[in-house]
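Bit of a strange request maybe. I'm writing a small parser for structure token strings and I need a real example to test against, not something I typed by hand. Could someone generate the tokens for this chain?
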Amino acid sequence: MAAPKKSRGPAGGQGRPGRSLALILIVMAALTGGMFLSGNTTPRLGIDLAGGTSITLKAQSQPGKPDAINQTNMDTAVGIIERRVNGLGVSEAEVQTQGRDNIVVNIPKGTNSQQAREQVGTTAQLYFRPVLSIAAGAPTPEGSASPSPSGAPKPSTSADGAKATGSPTTPSATATTQGRAVTGGLTKDASPTPKASDESKASTNPTAPAEQPDGALEKKFAALDCSTKAGRAAAGANVKPTDPTVACSSEGDAKYILGPAEVSGTDVDSAKGAINQQTGQWIVQMGFTKGGAHKFQKITGRLAQQQSPQNQFAIVLDGEVVSAPYVREALSANAEISGSFDQQSAEDLANVLSYGALPLSFKEQTVTTVTAALGGEQLRAGLIAGAIGLALVIIYLVSYYRGLAFIALLSLLASGVLTYTLMALLGPAIGFALNLPAVCGAIVAIGITADSFIVYFERIRDEIREGRTLRPAVERAWPRARRTILVSDFVSFLAAAVLFVVTVGKVQGFAFTLGLTTLLDVVVVFLFTKPVMTMLARTKFFSSGHPWSGLDPKRLGAKPPLRRSRRVNARTDHPKEA
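Reply from user aminoacidic:
Good idea to test on real output. This should exercise your parser:
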């Protein structure tokens, strides 16, 4: 008779469990090594654990817009402030509305948290206004010449730092224009150099920069003191965009008479700081919307025909001039601001241009600081709760599953290593910060992971109760346990995903951690728990059904081995047939 063919084990059988085990061990080693090489050996903590600042902003009513404070504008403001703060690299900045007219901004303690706090206080409205006149920030001495927008330009600083020559009657103080110019663009005005007739046409334009400010505005300009914080706050307060106004530079060293706003921040599509490849200097690149490009082309085409300082436009944020570059040529869709920039100032201005146009103005109402000591106490309490939960799970596993508890503890350890290293690496990668709800999500994950082990162990025990030995029981139990584990983890992950999408703030930390640990549970059970169980099933301690293995057939009430009894009957019946 031909020898019977050896039957192959089930898919994913007991033949090569070492491959899966080696794979997950390599992944764990790579993640641990990456964590130490990156220098991020601890997860980034949120404001409730590491401390930080909570700022409450109150929306201010707008002149001529009594209904401006509404839910739509508040939601728009929340989105812009959040993008603006996160644009500075601040992790887990939390921005949300409170009541009808308040916005709460939580900034965790970190490298850029102070810079973010400064910019949160200046997140109102952004406008581009033509410059009519410039003077030093101090009040103009009584009896000195009044500013003359068209006849006698004030001394200014050009892009190369040289002072433009002023009239003998001009005050001797030099007005700072920040040495910046606007150039470049996808579409440039190709018209020839403007003639005298063109200049006269521009001067007759009612919104041209050369128009004379009225006497009241001149008196306000002369008395304006930009060297004090109160003076800078009062300049341009409660002014409609369609009205001319006075304003101070953000440094307080210059003051301006500005024409009506012709381009608003909502017309800016994008802005970013970059290095000019030809000069090696930092610049700010701007892109406009379709409507904004038309407006920008109109204003730059007119300003390019004027003399300094009427060839400048001011970028005005919250009534302060953050930059006042001059125009060399007519521009439209794209432009760049060049001059005395370093990396930080270029990125700050780009951030203002990208995210500074809010539908409302806000006043800083309260500032609360959460100390690191309080956050440390909360973190300690969370870790204690996690340790208690883990201890209860271990006690249950050891008392009920005995030797199988060793496999479960190894699997929990593998899951813990993967979770910790990923949290540490995700901090700098995507800005993930561990907050108190996220710690709660990790504690809940202990139960989810343990539940997967219990499902598999119970399936193995069921097979042993049916009279099978351990090694076949391990393989036959796996397909049934695998389906149950996948369905259970899918439901948990789906709940975490829905919770992450529909919630905001700290609850998202709970949902993210729950979803991450659920995915890791699948990885650990498939690549670690199952291979380890297969390998230990070959040892004498488990295969012999030791009373402390958790797989003792007598304790489980196993049935007699049906296959063995059939073979014995067949052997006893054979001589009779012969």
